[in-house]
Amino acid sequence: MPHQRIRWLAGLTVATGLALCGPVVVAKEAAKPIEITSFSGAYLAARVAEGDNDLDSAITYYKQALAFAPDDVQLQQSLMLTLISQGRFDESLPYADKLKEVPDIERFSRLALAVDTFRKKDYQKAEYWLKLSLQADLDRLISGVMTGWARLGAGHGKDAVSYVAKLKGPEWFDLFKSYHRALIADVAGQKDKAAEAYKSTLENMAAGGAAPETWLRNAEAYARFLAREGKKDEALAVLDKSEEFVTGRTEIEALRESIGKGEEIAPMVASPADGASEILVNLATALNRGGGEPFVRLYLEYALALKPDSDIALVQIAGVAEQMKDSERAISYYRRIADSSPYKQVAELQLGLNLADLGRNDEAIEHLQALVEARPDEMRGYLALGGVYGSKENWRASADLYDRAVERLKEPEPADWNIFYQRGIAYERLREWNEAEPNFRKALELNPDQPQVMNYLGYSWVDKNMNLVEALEMIQKAVELRPSDGYIVDSLGWAYYKLGRFEDAVRELERAVSLRPEDPVLNDHLGDAYWRVGRRLEATFQWSYARDLEPEPDVLAEVEKKLQKGLPPLATNTAQDTGASRAKPAPEKAD
Description:
This is Tetratricopeptide repeat protein. This protein is mainly alpha-helical and about 600 residues long. It contains 32 helices and no strands.
């Protein structure tokens, strides 16, 4: 079903451990440039192209608009920001220079000029460009930390550390300040100050909850520092603490392996430009909470202008491209990540998923199969490839793949629950319930109370009129854990429907539809429940709406039949056996 495929692809990133937010704009194929004969035509074309995330065309049209109005500050601003967002940083600099004294845009124009002077190692000039007439908290933190790095570059390491320490701002500044104090002291060779700042940042777990990526970056930097100081056990203890905070991070696993082998460990940051890039990445990731993707992308492009090979910036900006439904752009970023990077495996997995998202399934499968063969004990490869098979409803290939994965698991760990969950889904879709059910139970054994597994297993039991009391309790618990998940709420409503509790079904199905109004199956379910409680007009409306949402052919046929004849009386079509084949819960991967 189309809606199921979308839900599959939305969940596939869990296989890599990257969490993504909701989309803002949808990338479209670049349109053939239109002939422009007026300022208004050029400006309108630029805005439309920008809204479609076709930034190269937007740049072309903004330049054409400027030909009609070369002194228009708003146009210069739009063009500068679009150039930076598209990774054409050097082209933005002439416009940044023109806008350097314009208060409303200086936060971006002067930042661009500061980045350029960092690259040229003209640190005194960089500090000059970082002085702003108007400063919000975010700008004050960026300019303050970057000024610290500029002072280090100018040879004033001691002053640089104290300058960052004295920055005034809200409490949320503290994590970023202490982390960059540590980095600056580390690069300056002030080992005692670096150790103190790294340690205090590591102990600030509360701030880490608000900015987890920055907290983890500090943990990695601290472990690198300790390893270089010959304190191997202490370095590994720091990595242990980071894995208590979040597990499965490839960069932490790679660093642990390198320290264990006694390899030479590089510092996290080696230069003022690296440090300036780091604060921009830190704040961009902290801001990436959904709804601000263009803004986040802008700061990440500044970071890449300072450090083009920054693997953390490339991974993050590729994720932003995915959030904006720009899979081609995401692929281009992933391909820039070096083979030696600990993020390379994640990048290759995500690259394969983006190929699938573009409908290039054969390429995606070939790419992901190669990854599985190269690293047969890496479960994320199986999850990614299995997800692509699932999006094509090739459940036999999916089941066979997960069989291979399970064979590689000598002693399954809690983190392996998803392999068994996806294997169960594949067999359930093949109508091989005797193979499916043990896998769902194994997933719950490894990860008790996992809401997606409880939902899928409970729903399946209800659909088969099995273990109805346990099934209802299981789905109710899943809803308690995920009250805003429309698909899980739908499962509860449909369970009530199957049990003949139609008023309860209406209540839950109305809530499910309010959470997922775009799903035709959920709307179809609500129509059925309305019919059973005598709300025939509303039932007809709901079925009509489900039909207009273009469901899969089997669902569409049932909906059209109900629009013509309604539902049969319960005497011949009981709540426990509706006759219609119902869509199973979407096999999304839970985080």
